[in-house]
């Protein structure tokens, strides 16, 4: 998945996606682009009627930041980014 694809997909998060991804991330402990993607998750959540602040939205935004860092780093972290993207399955499948 390319950076632009992930960014576009974040904008299409549904309410169910946010909650599903947050549940999946509960078992995980893992610049400017990161802040923008966090804001994109928050905008998508608000557009889906999730009142902010919301712990699931925060959790998903932080996880999106981890993916963003990996996508920006690119070389040498493909395996790690692939593992992070496992949680984003509903979003990746639709893109």
How would you characterize the overall build of this protein?
With about 100 residues, the protein is mainly α. It has one domain. Helices cover about 70% and strands about 0% of the residues. It contains 6 helices and no strands.
Beta strand count? 0
Strand fraction: under 5%
The H/E string reads HHHHHH
Largest sheet: none
Number of domains: 1
Note the main attributes of this structure:
95 residues; mainly alpha; 6 helices; 0% strand
Short description:
The protein has one domain.
SSE arrangement:
Layout: H1 3-10, H2 15-25, H3 32-47, H4 55-73, H5 78-85, H6 89-94
């Amino acid at each position: 998945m390319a950076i632009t694809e992930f960014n576009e997909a974040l904008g299409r998060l549904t309410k169910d996606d946010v909650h599903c991804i947050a549940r999946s991330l509960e078992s995980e402990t893992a610049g400017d682009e990161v802040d923008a993607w966090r804001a994109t998750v928050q905008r998508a959540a608000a557009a889906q009627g999730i009142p902010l602040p919301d712990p699931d939205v925060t959790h998903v935004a932080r996880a999106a930041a981890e993916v963003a860092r990996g996508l920006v780093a690119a070389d040498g972290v493909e395996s790690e980014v692939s593992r992070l993207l496992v949680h984003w399955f509903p979003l990746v499948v639709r893109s």
